[in-house]
Amino acid sequence: MNLKSLLLAGGALLSGTAASAGGYQVTLAGQKNNGMGGVGVGLSLDQAAMFYNPGALTMAKERGVQVGVNATIARQAFRSQYGGPQRELKNNVVTPFNLYAGFTSEDRKFAAGIAVYTPFGNKVEYADGWEGRYSLTGIDLKSVYVQPTVSYAITDRLSVGAGVVILAYGAVNLQKDIPVEGAPGSGPAHVELDGKATTKIGFNGGIYYRPSDKISVGASYRSKIDAQVEGGDVKFSNVPTTLGSRFTANEFDATLPLPATYSLGVGITPNEKLTIGVDVNYVEWSAYKTLQFDFRGNNGAGGLVSTSGQVGGSNISVSRREYKDAVTLRLGGQYQLTSGLTVRGGASYDFSPVKDGFVTPETPDADRLGLTLGASYKFGKFGVDLSGQFVDLKKRTQTEADLVANNTADRVAGTYKTRVLIPGIGLNYTF
Amino acid sequence: MYTFFKRTAPALSLLGLALVSCQPELDDIETSKGSADFTRYIAVGNSLTAGFSDGGLYLEGQQSSYPNLLAQQFKAVGGGDFTQPLFQTGQENGSGYLRLTGFTSTGSPTTANVTTNLAVRDRVVTRTSPASNPQLIYTKYTEPVNNLGVPGIRMSDIETKGFGNVASTGGNLLAPTPIFNSYFERITPAGSDQTYLERVAASNPTFFTSWVGNNDVLGYATAGAAASFLTPLADFTDKNSKLINALTANGAKGLVATIPDVTNVPFFTTVGPAFRATLAAANVPAIVVTTGAFSTTPGTPATRKSIPVTDIRDANGNGKQLFTLTASPYVTLFGRPNNGKAWRDVYNQARTSLPPTITLGVFLAIQGVDTTKAFGASAENPFPSTLVLDDAEQAVVKSATTAFNNALTAKANEKGLAIFDANAFFSRVATTGIVSDAVNNTAAFISGNLFSLDGVHPTPRGYAIIANEMINAINAKYGSSIQTVNPNDYRGVRFP
Lengths: 431, 496
Fold this sequence. Notes:
The complex is a heterodimer of chains A (431) and B (496).
Chain A: H1 3-14, H2 31-34, H3 49-52, E1 64-70, E2 72-80, E3 83-88, E4 93-94, E5 97-104, E6 110-117, E7 121-125, E8 138-153, E9 158-177, E10 190-196, E11 200-209, E12 215-222, E13 225-237, E14 251-258, E15 261-268, E16 274-283, E17 290-296, E18 316-320, E19 326-336, E20 341-350, E21 368-379, E22 382-393, E23 396-398, H4 400-405, E24 414-430
Antiparallel strand pairs in A: 1-5, 1-24, 2-3, 2-4, 2-24, 5-6, 6-8, 7-8, 8-9, 9-10, 9-11, 10-13, 11-12, 12-15, 13-14, 14-17, 15-16, 16-19, 17-18, 19-20, 20-21, 21-22, 22-24, 23-24
Chain B: H1 2-22, E1 41-45, H2 47-50, H3 59-63, H4 66-74, E2 98-103, E3 109-113, E4 120-124, E5 135-138, E6 147-149, E7 169-171, E8 176-179, H5 182-187, H6 196-201, E9 207-211, H7 214-222, H8 233-248, E10 253-257, H9 266-269, H10 271-281, E11 286-290, E12 304-308, E13 322-323, H11 328-331, H12 341-350, H13 360-367, E14 388-389, H14 391-414, E15 418-420, H15 422-432, E16 434-436, E17 439-441, H16 460-478
Parallel strand pairs in B: 1-6, 1-9, 9-10, 10-15
Antiparallel strand pairs in B: 2-3, 4-5, 7-8, 11-12, 13-14, 16-17
Helix pairs in contact in B: 4-16, 7-14, 8-14
């Protein structure tokens, strides 16, 4: 195989698929951090401190503008309880990105900046006809946070910072098949929910302390935001006409919690060249109790007299989630090899917020081990950051009996196994 | 740029390779045959075994018959070819069947008969089928078959000579003889008087399923206990014993299914609840029905019974009296004077078993019916017994079902066979439903996915769920691990 065809193979595979990290959280906010197992709360690497710990922003050695983008490529295998072929996802790529611009005062007392990042998101698209089609055929959940941030150094060892977290953009598209049989040869009846979230505001804050030149500690918090869709579109296709009166809704309302996160981090700098970080994140996933859709409006499919807001003969859909709070442990380090080149490595272990028997096709979550690599090269004021993550989700099985017992029979019985590969690249300019 | 490309190319191709190895693989579920031998599987039974659905036998139902689904799963553990007497293309609608055409403004389903592409080869006049409504016979299929499901067969029929011979037209009213079964006739060589039991004995299975006996109670129940008869227990026990002995003669292993409680099927649970609600809304306290068989003795009219509206069983199981699905067009006539439709129809059905001297007028006089009075609301014009299965009749059906099931399980245990307790299973389905991958299947008519438009026979989905329960029983008995089928691959009721 020559280089060209290898490249083509690689290129084709790059148009792969997507997944989330720990529930539907995405922790890819800084390209340097991404190469270090996602640590950053006890460090002050660069402008991404606005996300990891705004308190560390004044301590960042570099100030400037940086942008990063990642390609989340998920590969999944699913086997139904009833056997049959292994199901795999349609190959999609999602591209979580981050953008930071920061300014620090001459005396390094004040820092201010703006961050744009994607802390939550999820895109999964299942193969046609898969066993869970009546639960989900595809979801695309997007969120973009914009965060103006300020930081103040109380002493040259202690600093604090805070930001206003704005859910500037949020969108959800959720689709599934409807279990009714139409005429022979007609495609599956299908429903699509599509809506934009209203703009919401939260905050984050952090504190950063360097007791000695070799040790730093940090703590940060980001508040919960309830992403709320009001009047999203409900679209049916292929519903048999005789069932029109049971499928009249054309609008929906729903709320999805984007949970609060507490983080603690420690940074160790044995010498100028080596930095090691350890982080613990605690995410209040328990805020996610149910996923409820309220349906309304009348598309006229059932004639003038039919009841409004019906989806399958009901104007509400409630699905149990019952997430539990979850911890992520992270360890990472970087080493400056030459004046220009820095290399990174790290690992993370993410405890799933999803209880046994509650796994949904939209978030086929499990405990996950992440291994990361990264490198940066500086050309004067420019720098390039490369990162790569490999995330392995534990195999997870649930039977129909488990689902019935948990009152979660609105999802699919079988075994999931997912792996995710996330290459990323960042560019930065410092001044 | 070229240099950059050249340098990053190996990294990118490495990424491509990493992606290939990134795809997880999950092993297929392992299967094994355990101590059973599925080389030659024979299915013995009635309409349920044949794949009868929507009030008829047609190709799609045959293809999703539970024996066909079982055979398909047996293939993975050494099962051989499984031949069914399938209707051929061009005649795929077989006997004809019901299809859903829509709903009335009040939400009641409307159906129509499929009358094209049938496999009807002729019409035969018999004792019970006069020239005005002759018995249909179907295109023959006399190649060897593995599925011996014969719609309509009762345990009491298995030793009847000429049961598959079109010459058995039943004699006359005074000297009745057996009448052939059109579906057994279809798979029996012309002119042969072979009994069903003889056919089964010659089938030489290595594995079998046997599900016979439903019709020994069902016909009695669906006619509101007014027509047909219950098979005597001794006869049932004796013939079942012969059947199982024949199947196991060469050491075959197999499964025996019990008879479900017919009062759990939509045929009996659909009309009553809606009728009760209508009556309650109109403040009607009670209705009048006849109970038991119709009278044949002048001067002793059919027994009347007043049923309080609160005693009609509703969707929550309150109340005891059941209305048949066939009562649907009549309940709307409640309270109307000068309405004899129900009794006229009863007479037309009963006519063939009545002496020619019994005209409609005579028949009504014997039953003590005056159709000028308010229908269903008066003792003079009651609901005919054929539309109602009352609590006393239910008790008779139940005790017969229990006795038959005891006979079936005792014999199965004697031979060490697997048992599918269809009675317990369908009772459970009637109370809790059964979930398959986010789809809730229940015993509800039309919306429940499991029962077809006749309210008695399953849909393909229903048959798939039956096949799965049988597989579970086989696996438990013979230590095999046969994969179940995915119920959602099989349809429920089709909506236009």
